[in-house]
Amino acid sequence: MANLTSNFIGIKSPNPYWLASAPPTDKAYNVERAFKAGWGGVVWKTLGAEGPPVVNVNGPRYGAIWGADRRLLGLNNIELITDRPLEVNLREIKQVKRDWPDRAMVVSLMVPCDEESWKAILARVEETEADGVELNFGCPHGMSERGMGSAVGQVPEYIEMVTRWVKQHSRMPCIVKLTPNIADIRKPAEAAMRGGADAVSLINTINSITSVNLDTFSPEPMIDGKGAHGGYCGPAVKPIALNMVSEIARSPDTQGLPISGIGGVTTWRDAAEFLTLGAGNVQVCTAAMTYGFGIIKELTAGLSQYMDEKGFSSIDQLVGRAVPNVTDWQYLNLNYVAKAKINQDLCISCGRCFAACEDTSHQAISMSPDRKFEVIDEECVACNLCVNVCPVQDCITMEAMPKGAVDPRTGEPVRDYANWTMHPNNPMAKAAE
Amino acid sequence: MPATKGEPMSNSLTTPGIVAGRLHPEDYTRHFDDLYPDYAAHEAMVAADRCYFCHDAPCITACPTDIDIPLFIRQIQAGQPDAAGKTIFDQNILGGMCARVCPTETLCEGACVREAAEGKPVEIGRLQRYATDTLIARNAHPYTRAAPTGKRVAVVGAGPAGLACAHRLALHGHDVTVFDARTKPGGLNEYGIAAYKAAHGFAQAEVDWLLQIGGVTLRQGWALGRDGSLADLQADHDAVFLGIGLAGVNALGLADDTAPGARDAVEFIAELRQAPDLSTLPIGRHVVVIGGGMTAVDAAVQSRLLGAEHVTMVYRRGRDAMGASDHELSHAANEGVKIITHAMPVAIHANGSLREVEFAYTHPGETGLEPTGETFRLQADQLFKAIGQTLDGAPDALTLAGRKLAADAEGRTSLPGIWAGGDCTGDGEDLTVTAVAQGRDAAESIHAALMGAGA
Ligand SMILES: Cc1cc2nc3c(=O)[nH]c(=O)nc-3n(C[C@H](O)[C@H](O)[C@H](O)COP(=O)(O)OP(=O)(O)OC[C@H]3O[C@@H](n4cnc5c(N)ncnc54)[C@H](O)[C@@H]3O)c2cc1C
Ligand SMILES: Cc1cc2nc3c(=O)[nH]c(=O)nc-3n(C[C@H](O)[C@H](O)[C@H](O)COP(=O)(O)O)c2cc1C
Ligand code: SF4
Fold first, then answer.
1. Domain count, chain B
2. What's the pLDDT tens digit per position in B105-139?
3. Are A278 and A318 in contact (CB under 8 A)?
4. CATH number, domain at B101?
5. Which entry of A125, A188, B104, B377 is 20 to 30 Å from A391 by CA?
6. Of A69, A348, A351, Cβ closest to residue B117
7. Same domain, yes or no, for B194 and B318?
8. Of B340, B360, B388, which residue constitutes the final position of a domain?
């Protein structure tokens, strides 16, 4: 059996699944239930500075999009940081950590952007004997209007400055949580690294409006006729999160910076994908909010089975395995030639590939009067659209052509690796010696 | 099936002879309620999501009325079932009844790519019902008549063919009078279709809704031949459409086939459909049905539902030659109907009342079906004959094709100015949906003829 124990920047947990800072980690009651169910750790719901806590709206704070059978695909929220008194949270954190010493207990923090505020809160958190802190530079609504959350996360200099204060005033490991609402995710990661962060975690939620009520003309979720953008998360954001994680993992400037992967982790497979792209562990929020804590059994058993099947005995062996294969477009092999192939035994003759290719691609699929669909190799550019629209899995496949074979579309033989930087049409091409 | 609760019954499943009230009152309600209740909104969304929106979809090709099925399903997905209903009605104004009675397993759903792929087609029939019911429930007729043309058309027969024809003609601005021999309009929708397929008075509700188009006058109780001739109709109208169905029935040709207890299945079914209280409808303890089509199945199943203890359906050929679909036959089997094939009736044994029906096993021989020599008898208080309906009461002046009226693809008969469609013509299967298609197409042909050059 694969060993799922995790050691992320020195913080140990029995598995690499932490609950992200959010409602699931709002109080001792939830966190204890999560630990009983088997979660490896939690990042406690973000704490604010001493004083009267923030207040939340008293109407809907979530919006969502669904598949046809109401499968939740994306969730949006306008919740703020914790609205419970600081002392209550700290007391509970201390008690839970004492009762569950083998689980990771990280405390998420967001206080105003001055050194004193950070210094003050860090001292309080240290007393709880929590394992580390996560700096919430990601919350995209409400708190950002007050100069916190993503308002900090969007300015690399602020990230660096605050991270430095945290490292100065605390001995605790420090994770910087990044906002995806930024053009180049590497910049805030580099800033965190410069400030001395032990790790980054990403992504926090994405600015979003989930829908518009077409009777009242107000965005959802709607509070008394008005709506504000919220933060988007859940399965829909995974592709965005995977890309951002991989960007940091493969950048020479942030090489070796530990990453906690967040965004749409729903099954073990999502987690495995984050790990291969360089995340050292993963955090989960929406999946737990949708299905409850019980999913941890599938998440752990699934990952463990996959690792056994692949012969990996520890998480480290998986982490970053796909990173070397993430590259820039300009380095893709332009001499790699594939053709779509339709398995006639599996084809159910729906004609979706035909409609897609005929109307929106390269007119490379033929249709006979008796509804037989075939690829015209002379036209096929291997775009993969037919594969993606085909309702039958593995019915249409992309078959690579062997080197030397003649591509009927171009009349050219398949040649050795060559990319855009070497291509004659590229004015900047470096001539091959 | 056995009755379970409620008031004590006057009779029971085992009471001998042909008697009423074999079941508890609530069992009648349960047995004759909707076979497939309407989808709830969420169910419809889930069912609609299964459609692949096929290119040049095979389900459309399989629909005799060419409904744009993927389009209407997509409209359900997009949250507008009433718009989906309109898409259906554009092609088939009796789309509500067709959703209930079409043998979809041999039509659209049989052609659905998901039937081929998984043996589980998109449930097109139930989705169609959801869409059409939604629009009909609005009770606002979605069509407006064109400006009056001043042309008058006589439609004989208020069945699916006649109604579809009348609606399309009225839509084009013509004035239509529908003449029908029965007391109520609807044809077999009202007098023939199994009760559990058209529950809750749907046939009449549909006619009422359809007539909201305006410009259509119904004359019930008027029979062609009895109350007027084709020439009379032609004198008063610019065109005539005949949708008279099949008013006659085939006879068994056996002595005693009019013995008490022996009757035509269509007549029994019509009585059942019109019965205000099914518990007053007498039914045998031992019922035998002869025939292999939809009528035979419906007579057999509804006999069981009325409380007949033993119901046997006997057909002279094999199962694949039966007019009833596999789906209908397994429904009958589920309801406890025993199905015997390759046997034909040779004698009816009566003694004041019906006692037994004697059958001979058959095999295909040189001169058609031949008896194998082996015979058997089935106990019977009641015998329903369902061996086919025939054309009856058609004007002699019209040419026949086989045993039905000759008509071309547009429904034109051998006489100018006379069109025909539905079961009374030779084309296509005898189904509600084909009757609708032919009525509609004949209306377009009439419209073109009336409005064409020189009109
Ligand atoms: C028991 C039974 C069950 C069936 N079940 C199904 C089913 O589940 N699904 C399906 O698709 N099809 C079914 N059918 C077939 C379907 O009902 C017919 O194909 C369809 O009704 C034909 O429509 P039509 O308009 O041609 O004729 P009809 O529905 O028969 O209508 C003909 C009309 O003409 C009138 N008429 C007849 N003669 C005259 C006259 N001389 N003067 C004036 N009026 C006249 C009649 O009163 C009647 O109203 C069934 C048929 C039967 C008998
Ligand atoms: C209701 C809600 C409240 C959240 N509150 C916080 C928060 O207080 N602090 C924080 O760092 N992230 C917060 N998040 C973001 C999550 O921690 C996480 O980054 C995001 O939901 C993406 O992960 P997921 O796709 O698994 O949900 C919140 C998310 C939700 C849905
Ligand atoms: S064949 Fe089936 S899947 Fe295809 S369009 Fe028709 S209903 Fe939809």
1. 3
2. 999 999 999 998 999 999 999 999 999 999 999 98
3. no
4. 1.10.1060.10
5. B104
6. A348
7. no
8. B388
Residues B132 and B103 in one domain: yes
3-state SS class at B420 = strand
Structure token pair of residue B268: 């029994």
**Residue A241 in tokens:** 């999160």
pLDDT digits (tens, 9 = 90+) for A178-207: 999 999 999 999 999 999 999 999 999 999
A326 lines ligand 3 (CB under 6 A): no
Closest by CA to A125, choosing from A47, A211, A16, A31, is: A47
- Whether A284 is in the pocket of ligand 2, judged by its Cβ within 6 Å, is yes
Distance in Å from the first CA to the final CA of chain B: 61
Chain A residues lying within 8 Å of B46, measured CB to CB:
68-69
In-domain check, residue B124? yes
Give the predicted TM-score (pTM) of the model. 0.89
Instruction: State whether B49 and A349 contact (CB < 8 Å).
Output: no
Neighbours of B251 (CB within 10 A): 12
| Cα–Cα distance, B418 to B240 (Å, whole number) | 5
Q: Is the pLDDT of residue A433 over 50?
A: no
The pair of structure tokens assigned to B314 is: 């006997």
Residues B168 and B210 in one domain: yes
Side by side, which strands form the sheet with B382-385? B262-264, B382-385, B286-290, B310-314, B338-340
**Has residue B413 been placed in a domain?**
yes
Task: Establish if B147 belongs to a structural domain.
Answer: no
Task: For residue B176, give the CATH number of its domain.
Answer: 3.50.50.60
